[in-house]
Amino acid sequence: MSKMLSLAAGAALACAALGPATPIAEAQPKGDAGVCLNFTQVGGQRLADPRTLYLRAGRYIYRLGFANDCNSAVNETLIMHPVTNNDVICSAIELNVRVRETGESCVPNSLTRLTPEEAAALPPRDRP
């Protein structure tokens, strides 16, 4: 019994020693200032260019940036789905985006809620 306790204590010490070396919180950065997007409120989207998608959710507009060009997406429908089946998206990596017609994957790398001034400055063709 005491051998099991010493093994458990050793395992706990090993986990505690590894804890600071593996920052889990940094693996999934939050959106700007901890702002999250309620995915069920998305009422419009507009692809401004192959790397920028604007989303309207409630009274806010969000900019979703892509790590690579989604070349075929400019004229085709995008399918978006939360990775965790949770409606609250606080980081770009929590969202899967694909081009419906080709299956091409678009890799989101940034999610930003626009200020009212930034939203008003969007050209009409880019507004969701």
How is this structure best described in words?
By secondary structure, the chain is of the alpha+beta class. It has one domain (30-122). It contains 3 helices and 9 strands, in the order H-H-E-E-E-E-E-E-E-E-E-H. It has a 4-stranded antiparallel sheet, with no helix packed on it. The protein has a 3-stranded antiparallel sheet with strand order 5-7-8, with no helix packed on it. It has a two-stranded antiparallel ribbon with strand order 1-6. Strand 3 and strand 4 (60-66) form a beta hairpin. The chain is globular and about 35 Å long. The relative contact order is 0.19. Residues 1-32 have low confidence and may be disordered.
Describe the structure using short key phrases.
single chain; 128 residues; alpha+beta; 4-stranded antiparallel β-sheet
